[in-house]
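[recover] target loaded
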């Protein structure tokens, strides 16, 4: 691969920025919605349409974040060459795993003892980058084949489960089967993001980056994006309707047509099923097909978040959690109730805490607005200090 100058693709930054903004809504719901401590918002026997879609729309975040991480890696390779890209992916991947276990973990729990470790999206991106650091040395056709096999084939493994706390059980959980493990000494670990489908997603995102080389005109690229996005959506509809393969949780007819439609959309995130990825990445690719133009004033602001996604991710956790401490104290709960030993919505200390969905939306909007000038300053700092290698790690 020859080195060549690469300019930022504003449509990609915009898509990434949108999913980062939406992501904050999901986490605001975790910290502030009263019903978040009582039931799953996708539980059709308890939820309502607004709450369902408040959760469902955030399904786009992780797949787009991981997929575009692969695309960004391709752009890095165009600038630096494959050997340097491989080393960058290895070191940045390990750095992200470290962040997940330390800075991110403390942000979620505010507990220095770290009694609970959640292996979530940053962990998945980190290990996926490590895997990609090896794969990028292979021919592109081989890389693409690996991505297709992992994404389209991993649901064949859905019936395999390894019980207990054995080494084999932990390894299998890390690869494909989400699980909770007691580590002893009051510590536990939850594998929320098993690796196989996420590695496949970042690999396909890497290959997707080839569409943004000089080999494709804007119109040619748009046509391909329309076929890819539309084809993914059509394949999702066909496979989901068939209820045969692609998701371990089949849809079923419900009491009303609307509830049946919600069941149809309720695909599996942990790990992300083939249908979950088709459902989220298909529309996202279509979005890219229609947004490769001069952005509007609002879009330019959202693009700021898309250019500093890791910085935004870290900041939004700490801001939301800090506001939650204030909210808890203001509603009669001790500040210590926001120091967690397990995941937020599973904490027994918070039964009776929380607000309506309207308040959640207001807090979400306030946090996004608060973070905008901070992210804008950081983006300008990155632009002014392009030669600072450490900035590419945050």
């Amino acid at each position: 691969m020859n080195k060549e100058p690469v300019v930022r693709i504003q449509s990609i930054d915009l898509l990434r920025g949108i999913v980062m903004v939406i992501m904050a809504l999901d986490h605001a719901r975790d910290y502030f919605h009263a019903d978040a401590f009582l039931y799953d918002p996708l539980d059709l026997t308890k939820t309502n349409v607004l709450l369902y879609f408040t959760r469902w729309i955030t399904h786009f975040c992780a797949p787009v974040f991981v997929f575009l991480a692969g695309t960004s890696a391709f752009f890095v390779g165009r600038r630096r060459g494959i050997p340097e890209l491989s080393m960058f992916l290895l070191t940045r991947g390990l750095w992200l795993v470290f962040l997940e276990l330390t800075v991110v973990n403390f942000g979620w729990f505010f507990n220095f003892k770290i009694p609970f470790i959640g292996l979530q999206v940053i962990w998945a991106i980190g290990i996926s980058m490590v895997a990609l650091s090896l794969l990028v040395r292979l021919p592109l056709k081989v890389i693409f084949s690996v991505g297709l096999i992992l994404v389209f084939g991993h649901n064949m493994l859905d019936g395999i489960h390894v019980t207990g706390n054995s080494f084999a059980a932990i390894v299998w959980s890390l690869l494909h089967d989400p699980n909770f493990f007691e580590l002893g000494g009051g510590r536990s670990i939850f594998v929320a993001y098993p690796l196989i489908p996420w590695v496949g997603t970042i690999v396909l995102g890497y290959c997707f980056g080839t569409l943004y080389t000089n080999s494709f005109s804007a119109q040619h690229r748009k046509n391909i994006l329309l076929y890819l996005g539309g084809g993914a959506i059509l394949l999702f509809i066909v496979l989901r309707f068939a209820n045969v393969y692609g998701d371990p949780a089949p849809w079923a007819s419900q009491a009303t047509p609307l509830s049946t439609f919600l069941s149809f959309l309720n695909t599996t995130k942990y790990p992300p099923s083939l249908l979950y990825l088709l459902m989220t990445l298909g529309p996202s690719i279509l979005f890219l097909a229609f947004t490769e133009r001069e952005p509007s004033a609002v879009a330019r602001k959202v693009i700021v978040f898309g250019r500093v996604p890791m910085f935004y991710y870290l900041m939004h956790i700490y801001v939301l959690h800090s506001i939650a401490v204030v909210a808890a104290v203001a509603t009669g709960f001790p500040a210590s109730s926001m120091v967690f030993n397990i995941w937020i919505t599973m904490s027994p200390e918070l039964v009776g805490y929380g607000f309506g969905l309207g308040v959640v939306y207001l807090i979400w909007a306030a946090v996004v607005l608060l973070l905008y000038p901070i992210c804008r300053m950081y983006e300008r700092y990155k632009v002014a200090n392009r030669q600072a290698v450490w900035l590419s790690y945050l």
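[recover] notes: Residues 10-393 form one domain.
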